[in-house]
Design brief:
The complex is a heterodimer of chains A (120) and B (112). Chain A is mostly beta strands and 120 residues long. Helices cover 0% and strands 50% of the residues of chain A. In chain A, the strands form 2 sheets. In chain A, strands 2, 4, 5, 6, 9, 10 and 11 form a 7-stranded mixed β-sheet that branches. A 4-stranded antiparallel β-sheet of chain A has the order 1-3-8-7, with no helix packed on it. In chain A, a hairpin with a 4-residue loop joins strand 7 and strand 8. Chain A starts with a strand and ends with a strand. Chain B has no helices and 11 strands. In chain B, the strands form 2 sheets. In chain B, strands 2, 4, 5, 6, 9, 10 and 11 form a 7-stranded mixed β-sheet that branches. In chain B, strands 1-3-8-7 form a 4-stranded antiparallel β-sheet, with no helix packed on it. The chains are: A mainly beta (120), B mainly beta (112). At the A-B interface, strand 5 and strand 10 of A face strand 5 and strand 10 of B.
């Protein structure tokens, strides 16, 4: 059974940092691209970042570029999102999502999400 | 970026009746491999999104056959043949052909 456990969220002041983790199991983690998607309270879904299966290639939304870093440890089947210089508008539930296909960036399984609150 | 536009914003359906959600993309979602990378998700209240349909029309594992996806070019449709109480939530379309991944604004489905 595929499982993804998001963690690391919490309350942080503007300008602060957080590191999110997503522990995956039930599939060959190193074979799939992974993504982070966020959802502000009461809002829709917004893509944040994606990483190739090997971890060599990373991609970011313009809104987080230069502040967030996606990475993965395939030996630990874990995805990370290092978030620096956090802004009030970064407050959201952050979901990790497993890549579905080989030639696209679509996703199938999502974690339960971890809440990031940015407030002074 | 590919813009995804969903309609309607909300839908109130009598159990057992059909429902249909439209999604339009600003660009064609046809990949060079011949597949159309259009996805449909359902986010039930208090839960994370769950995949219903991938690659335009393929049902994901465990998804009931009352859900179907269709379309071509830039126009896509999710149909529920007979809505059940457990189908309530917000439905999202998403394109996976290019980054950034982009989502429709969502369609909230409730039961009458």
């Amino acid at each position: 059974e595929v499982q993804m456990l998001d963690s690391g969220g919490g309350l942080v002041q503007p300008g602060g940092s957080l590191r999110l983790s997503c522990a995956a199991s039930g599939f060959s983690f190193s074979s799939y691209a992974m993504s982070w998607v966020r959802q502000a309270p009461g809002k829709g879904l917004e893509w944040v970042s994606s990483i190739s299966s090997s971890g060599v290639s990373t991609y970011y939304a313009d809104s987080v570029k230069g502040r967030f870093t996606i990475s993965r440890d395939n030996s630990k089947s874990t995805l990370y999102l290092q978030m620096n210089s956090l802004r009030v508008e970064d407050a959201a539930v952050y979901y990790c999502a497993k890549g579905h296909g080989v030639y696209d960036w679509g996703t199938d399984y999502w974690g339960q999400g971890t809440l990031v609150t940015v407030s002074s | 970026d590919i813009v995804m536009t969903q309609t309607p914003l909300s839908l109130s359906v009598t159990p057992g009746q059909p429902a249909s959600i439209s999604c339009k993309s600003s660009q064609r979602l046809l990949h060079s491999d011949g597949k159309t990378y259009l996805y449909w998700y359902l986010q039930k209240p208090g839960q994370s999104p769950q995949l219903l349909i991938y690659e335009l029309s393929s049902r994901f594992s465990g998804v009931p056959d009352r859900f179907s996806g269709s379309g071509s070019g830039t126009d896509f449709t999710l149909k529920i043949s007979r809505v059940e109480a457990e189908d309530v939530g917000v439905y999202y379309c998403m394109q996976g052909v290019n980054l950034p991944l982009t989502f429709g604004g969502g369609t909230k489905v409730e039961i009458k």
